[in-house]
TrEMBL record:
GO terms for cellular component: cytoplasmic exosome (RNase complex); nuclear exosome (RNase complex); nucleolus. The keyword rRNA processing applies. Transmembrane segments: none annotated. It holds the Pfam family Rrp40_N. Belongs to the RRP40 family. This is Exosome complex component RRP40. SUPFAM superfamilies: Eukaryotic type KH-domain (KH-domain type I), Nucleic acid-binding proteins, Ribosomal L27 protein-like.
Length: 244
């Protein structure tokens, strides 16, 4: 079954497509014979001896045993460990309520900032943009955010966004922007020197040297959602040549 899946990597699959597999279907990871079960990511669901496709998109694979469907989905489902861009919507006692684009607002303690104490509270106002990480993401619990990593450092997280523009894109475009070997982000930075903050919830904050350049980059990002790679490269070349 693994060989069948690998043959379909890069192809477009539709809801209802299925692959047959045994309940104990495993993949050898080392020469010693150790094996591990297939990991079905977003868009794939196991049902007995079948692997079902639950959303339309392109089948992707990550070694050694993870498969998922990459789609143009815009609805965000919070997942633990993901970094998101949120908007502070309210203060409630010692907790901030943050809109992260999910089905409900997330909570953020005022102590979840680098150097924050009961006397030294962070300067966070309603309407501020936050780059934060999800530490609780469960369908039965309210999402919870922090602006520090495991060692208590901000590591780029916290309040940001003075100036710039916040836009909404598909989750597939977010993954392409964050891909280690992707060239989309590098192409954008070659056009204009800019700052980008990308959240896994489909929000992108961009700021360039001028308002006009910021608007151009924001429009380009939204256009990339529906463009193929050759179309995008052609558009970028025209911009570099001063056609617009």
């Amino acid at each position: 079954m693994f060989s069948v899946l690998k043959e379909r990597v890069g192809e477009i699959l539709l809801p209802g497509d299925e692959f047959c597999c045994g309940p104990q279907d495993t993949l050898p990871l080392t020469d010693s014979g150790k094996s591990e079960r297939l990991l079905a990511g977003p868009g794939l669901r196991r049902s007995g001896d079948r692997l079902l496709v639950s959303r339309s998109g392109v089948l992707r694979h990550k070694e050694p045993n993870k498969f998922w469907i990459e789609s143009q989905q815009r609805r965000y489902v919070p997942a633990k460990g993901e970094t998101v861009i949120g908007i502070v919507t309210a203060k409630s006692g010692d907790v901030f309520k943050v809109d992260i684009g999910g089905s409900e607002a997330a909570s953020l303690s005022y102590l979840a900032f680098e150097g924050a104490t009961k006397r030294n509270r962070p300067n966070v106002q309603v309407g501020d943009l936050l780059l934060a990480q999800l530490v609780v993401a469960n369908k039965d619990m309210e999402p919870e955010l922090v602006c520090i990593d495991g060692s208590g450092r901000a590591n780029g997280m916290g309040v940001f966004g003075t100036g710039g523009l916040l836009i909404k894109v598909s989750l597939g475009l977010v993954r392409r922007l964050l891909a280690p070997r992707g060239n989309l982000r590098a192409d954008l930075e070659q056009l204009f020197p800019c700052e980008l903050a990308v959240g896994m919830n489909g929000r992108v904050w961009v700021r360039a040297g001028t308002v006009q350049q910021t608007l151009v980059l924001a429009n380009l990002l939204q256009s990339c959602d529906v463009m193929t790679a050759p179309q995008r490269q052609q558009l970028f070349r025209r911009l570099q040549q001063g056609a617009f």
